[in-house]
Fold this sequence. Notes:
By secondary structure, this protein is an alpha/beta fold. The protein is built from nine helices and nine strands. The chain has helices spanning 16-26, 43-48, 62-69, 108-117, 131-137, 148-156, 196-208, 214-217, 241-249, and strands at residues 12-13, 34-37, 55-58, 78-80, 98-102, 124-130, 157-165, 170-171, 178-185. The chain starts with 11 loop residues before the first strand and ends with a helix.
Amino acid sequence: xxxxxxxxxxxxxxxxxxxxxxxxxxxxxxxxxxxxxxxxxxxxxxxxxxxxxxxxxxxxxxxxxxxxxxxxxxxxxxxxxxxxxxxxxxxxxxxxxxxxxxxxxxxxxxxxxxxxxxxxxxxxxxxxxxxxxxxxxxxxxxxxxxxxxxxxxxxxxxxxxxxxxxxxxxxxxxxxxxxxxxxxxxxxxxxxxxxxxxxxxxxxxxxxxxxxxxxxxxxxxxxxxxxxxxxxxxxxxxxxxxxxxxxxxxxxx
Length: 253
């Protein structure tokens, strides 16, 4: 047994009923390929391989790599000793896998943006995240939880909270409640016609000064306001994804 390391935000799942619930939620078939982020001691991994033999894992902790390597059930499966944020999914030899992870909560946003960067190379994703982050991801317009990450992820994903989780099912016990979320691709927008960098810039600038009206927070951008249908007296939490797209599409280069 390897003890959890604070520097990597490790909290291991130890509740068998929860592990079974996760597997049932993911609904893995024998044809599915799976990439598991941070397998830890392999508790969830062992249940995944009961469903499919196409599993690969990414684990940053070399001690946990050794634990997996000594596990007769898991040792035949490929595990990469690297940081998921520095991993090129395209190079792992998987064909649009389901991505699953009990991830360090301090890098939740970077992992979600990693999924955006690797959008063509995975099919669905299921992550364990902090409850408050999950609520921001699915927040409605006009609420206090509606934020930059809501608007950024909403362009690419349909995110759902599958269920909430007590701190008691982890070792060590975290100080926060958790949520298990599903991330599926949003086909509403034609991403080939969207300047994602410009969209990201508009969203970031607006929410960096979320108490200000858009005419102030976006004042440094040259925007064709005759063509843009957005009222710039509004604040960012009042705008839909389509309205943020309208602004970004009408920036004068």
